[in-house]
Amino acid sequence: MNESKKMKWQKDLDTFFSIYNSFVLEGFVDDEQPYEYKDGKTEYCKLYEYFDKAYSGNIDFDKKRRVIIYDPVESEDKRFKIFDDNYTQKDKIINYSSLLSQHFWDITHDEDMDKLLIDHKSSGPSLDFSRIHYAVTEGTERLAPFEALDKFKDFFSALFGAVSADGGEPNGYLFVIKMTSRLLSRDGNSGGLSGEELMIFRQLLSIAQSLNTGNGDTRPKGQKHKLIVLANRARDLPTWFIDENANPFIKIITVARPSEENKIDYFHEMLEQNVFNERFMARYEEIKKDSENKGEKKNRVEKKFLAYTNDFGMTTLRKYRSFVAANPIDNPEKLGFSISSFRAGDTTNPWDDEARISDMLNIKQTVSEKIKGQEYALDAAQEILTRAAEGLDRAENPNAPRVVLFLAGPTGTGKTELCKQIAEAIFGSEDRIVRFDMSEYGQAESDQKLFGAPPGYVGYEEGGKLTNAIKKEPFSLILFDEIEKAHNSILDKFLQILGDGRLTDGKGETVRFTDCIIVITSNAGVFSLGGMPQSEVDELMNGDKRPDGEMNMARVIEMEDEKTAEEIYASVREHLRYNVKEYFHCKLKKPELYGRIADSIVYYNYIGKDSVGEIAKAKIADVIKSAIEVMEIKDIICPDKVKNAIGKYCQDCKVRALGARGIIKSTGQLFSGSLSDFLSAYVRGTDGKSKRDLAGKVLQCDCSGDINSAKDIKWSVKDGGGI
Questions:
Q1: Are 105 and 129 in contact, with CB atoms under 8 Å apart?
Q2: Which residues does 266 contact at the CB level (< 8 Å), separation at least 6?
Q3: Cross-strand bridge partners of residue 512
């Protein structure tokens, strides 16, 4: 194989092949591996098939081996059998496994090895060599089924004789033990192995010691024969078996995912073999030509393919190829979604729905109907969402989350409501919000609830709440509410989520946030940090100067008589910006995390005086609508003087400091409280009143001046004909 196309594990094995005689290959050992023929054609095959192709004569003679594969789970009917029509059915099945296993034992058995094995030869079943599987025999001429029993001699000679298919003598044997991780019933620990498990690895260690050549060792058997143990994870095996100090006879080599070169080659193969349709190919050629004119080594489609498949093995890539054949794509720009759909099993891409994108581009108008007094914040949010809809933020990093919003500002100003409206616009339902109240994750160990416990810990198999949610529904809005209440260690994970758009959970599975909307809310910017010498703060803030004074609701109320709404917001925004930056730089000591979200911060304003009355009126309207439906009343009339009096009450600093939530709560206490008190007699049936008395009637409220309690609102009943 061309050196540039070889995977690292293949290069490593070539390097150490003449030095070591025993190897443990861990990692993606069940994935397909590339093998390049002399004519340059590349074929992908199972790992054990790769050994047959690479070490049975197609490469240099020094590495040429007769390859023998042992599969511990090979079923009985898969053993070598010969059929002969001259015998009965019972006699037709001739099992040569005992002869083959004996020959295998003879090859690996010598006096030194015998001394090592003698203590446990009779301890019970060990490696069942009767299930040896010879990969070199499958589908090749020399191992074709024989028609008569007398040809067994020819069969045995072809398999173990001095003459191989190409006429050359093999330079020893290469023994490959498959699925070694599955030989254990628990994680590798010599103290926890059963007798059978312990004996298996004693045998393997004995073989490794027997094959080892050492300095000055010229035994031909040791020079010729090689042992390769395949394990999904080396740590599944006993520690004493894989530790370099305890066992210097074995070299561990990691089999990784396909390299970028391998993936690009495979992508080009898909193009050459017309896996993609004509429209895709026509547009791809335009993109390719444009990249070539710019001198780029990889065009943007190739970059996107690599980015979206960075955790794919070759087997998964080949399955994706079948997916493309069944679900064609017309535009190379949509390759990312095609891969995301393949992952999720959902061929409906909300990011490719023009109607939903249109809703996203007009989210400000939609949200303004429910969120009052946040025009400037909604402008900033709309700008970020527009960039996301157009894909401008993902040009350099297509793996990053589709949208990242960091909503900073006072409580009760509509941050959560914006999340609901975005989820409704893009994903079709508020149910697509996956919300995490970060006050529940204030302890160092609470990260296990989000990301899953490490292997060996309680709940390891269950995974984490966050990772499980994304696996279930990759097109979601993830809301991390009040992030400042989370433990500092949890925030380290956000660097990976926001930057690479992926996260590895406790089970080692990669979870992707590529098609998610990440929303983080925080009240951290409302208050200055304090408690740290200003000189130290200035140094950590890189010379960014603190705005004069403090910013709170009382200060905003003072400014309302002196400045315009735009000037007030500019002042509030500057204080929030500085305090948020100070929080990340000085308290968390994570300036790199601030750098990730700096361009995605939306600063919410304090509720302005003009918005107070609007919020109060909206709450009154909701109460009236609900009461009419429940009580079957014709109408409820609330005059402007009552609404204005309630709005005036809500202008109080203590009420406004709680944001819209405080205004809604106070309005409810006043208006809903008074209405409930008035209706209670009709509901209970006291004082000769009945709920039926209100049917078809109109209720009207009034007040004589300021409203400071529910008792200040008076109610009366009018006929339904008019007032």
A1: yes
A2: 44, 258, 314, 317
A3: 502
- Per-residue exposure over 316-350, b if at least 16 CB sit within 10 Å of its own CB, e if not: bbeebbeebeeeebeebbbbbbbbbbbbbeeeebb
Query: Which of 3-10's residues contact partners 24+ apart within 8 Å by CB, and which partners?
Result: 4/261, 5/34, 5/36, 5/42, 5/261, 5/262, 5/265, 6/34, 7/33, 7/34, 7/255, 7/256, 7/258, 7/259, 7/262, 8/254, 8/256, 8/259, 9/253, 9/254, 9/255, 9/256
Contact 720, 656 (CB under 8 A): no
Residues 391, 379: Cα–Cα separation, whole Å: 18
Assign residue 274 a region (left: φ > 0; alpha: ψ between -120 and 50; beta: otherwise): left
Q: What one-character-per-residue DSSP string does 327-351 give?
A: S--S-GGGHHHHHHHHHHT----GG
Alpha helix locations (H) across 523-652? 534-540, 553-559, 565-582, 591-597, 609-631, 640-650
Helix 375-390 vs helix 415-427: crossing angle, to nearest 10: 30
Between 182 and 333, the more confident residue is: 333
Q: What is the pLDDT of residues 583-599, one digit of tens each?
A: 888 888 888 888 888 88
Domain of residue 710 covers 609-718
Residue 601 phi, psi dihedral angles, 5° rounding: -85, 130
Query: Does 329 share its domain with 385?
Result: no
14-48 pLDDT, tens digit each: 888 888 888 999 988 889 888 887 777 778 888 87
Domain match, 290 and 152 both: no
Same domain, yes or no: 545 and 624: no
Domain end (from 296, 320, 347): 347
Indicate the residue among 200, 227, 255 that finishes a domain.
255
Task: Say yes or no: 410 and 555 in one domain.
Answer: yes
Does the residue 620 lie in any domain?
yes
Q: Flag whether 233 is in a domain.
A: yes
CA distance 402 to 395: 11
Task: Tally Cβ neighbours within 10 Å of residue 354.
Answer: 7
Distance, CA of 159 to CA of 154 (rounded, Å)? 9
Q: What's the total number of domains in the chain?
A: 4
565/373 Cα distance (integer angstroms): 10
Q: What tokens does 340 get? A: 């995301």
- Shared domain check, 194 and 76: yes
- Which of these, 230, 213, 289, lies nearest to 20 by C-alpha position? 213
Instruction: Name the H helices within 345-443.
Output: 354-361, 363-368, 375-390, 415-427
- DSSP 3-state of 294: coil
pTM over 0.85: no
